[in-house]
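Figure S7 source data.
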Amino acid sequence: MMKHSITLTVNGDRYTLAVFPWRTLNEVLREDLNLTGTKRGCGTGDCGACTVMVDGRTVSSCLTLAVDVDGKEILTVEGLAPDGERLHPIQEAFIEKGAIQCGFCTPGMEMSALYLLSNHPRPGEREIRHGLSGNLCRCTGYNKIVEAVAEASRRMEKNNGAPGGGRKP
Ligand code: FES
Ligand code: FES
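Tokens for the predicted FE2/S2 (inorganic) cluster complex:
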């Protein structure tokens, strides 16, 4: 079968790639672009470890074919701290609250948290738990993760009330 030429904008950088039609966005991010922050857990849409944003909405990259996101904007966890030095308030809050154990679920949790906080800047505990309900933590550190998202909400509000303190993303 023929490869297809696709163009993706990932964390602000544009890539043109030739991919087989059966390859997932998760595979292309991890294997072709070496963006291994996005994890692959179940591979069947159940764990949320592979969560990324496509045109501002969270998707399971393990269930998304790369050819189906041709021309779209992708944001991965690497895009939260693009200069590699200053962390996003969500990342700072996860560290401060001890919300990371093995860290495998963390990238997906943070992308779901970003989507939640972008749409509900001041979520209550129930909203946070609902917003993260598609993400599983095998270390079961859910309470600290919820605390971290609440803290991230406070930090982002303090920084002009905008996600990322008014900077992209
Ligand atoms: S790896 Fe995609 S949902 Fe689990
Ligand atoms: S911190 Fe280990 S899976 Fe969540």
